[in-house]
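DM from R.C. (forwarded with permission)

"hey, sorry to bug you on a friday — could you get me a structure for this? deadline for the figure draft is monday and I only need the backbone to look sensible"
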Amino acid sequence: MFNLYETKTAKILKISDHVPGIKLFELGFDKMHFQLRFDEDARIYPGQFIMLSLPGFGEAPFAPCNKPGKNLELCIRAIGKLTNRMHILKVGDKIGIRGPFGIGWPIAGAQVQSSKFKVKNEEKKNLLIVVGGLGLIPLRTLILGKNEFLGKDAKIQIFYGAKHPSEMLFRNEYESWQKDGVNLQLSIDKVCEDWKGCVGLVTKLFEVVSVVADARAFVCGPPVMYKAVLEKLKKYGFADEDIYLSFERRMHCGVGVCQHCGIGSHYVCKQGPVFRYDQIKNVQGAI
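My reply, with the result:
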């Protein structure tokens, strides 16, 4: 039976230097515990999160980003006490994992835990992903599991914005994504040497690229970008119920007890982190 408060031990199997200040950790678990599925009551779906802990350094939420069915992977930026400590760990070291928690992206097989956030317009198979900065992390599992989660005929278009090409995540995978039918469009904030693509905020891509038709939109990134992205989506005719946004803010306990992640009457850790726009747009402070 799934225990919300039980911390399981994971061993670091591999560490990859990703972009400056960011590392990708591959984790393994004792067969007595769990691998990707954790257990039958708690399969991880794209967009959900786990709580990672180190004794003496705290606990924080992270979005798994591994390929479906493979070892758990976490992409972590060194930015605080816990994450800086993670960056000096080595293969073989152990950490604590609790979860998974929350409601992820509305995809095939996802178990929506609250009737308040039921998926609408499931007949729309195509997907527009709009992400900025680290916002690509919670969507990597979905991209790598495109056929499983969306179906072979579904089209995925990604609008990804970053400050500089060197800060773009998973760059070594872009070619394989495109071979799998993903339409990847990139933009950087300012002109830089050897960059021949789009220059401007991620919303600039709406002006220079044809947007995929008959699609839902998944949005993830810095909160400051959400209003501008929503304006573009509405201009292109996306209905409120076809837009989903991920909020990962101030989550401390992961189970709705500490109340740090409250948005109006909603808890990001329990009713999110993914919310449908029509159900959050009128909540003060949400966007």
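R.C.: lifesaver. Residues 36 and 71 are 6 Å apart (CA to CA).
me: no worries. The chain is about 15% helix and 30% strand.
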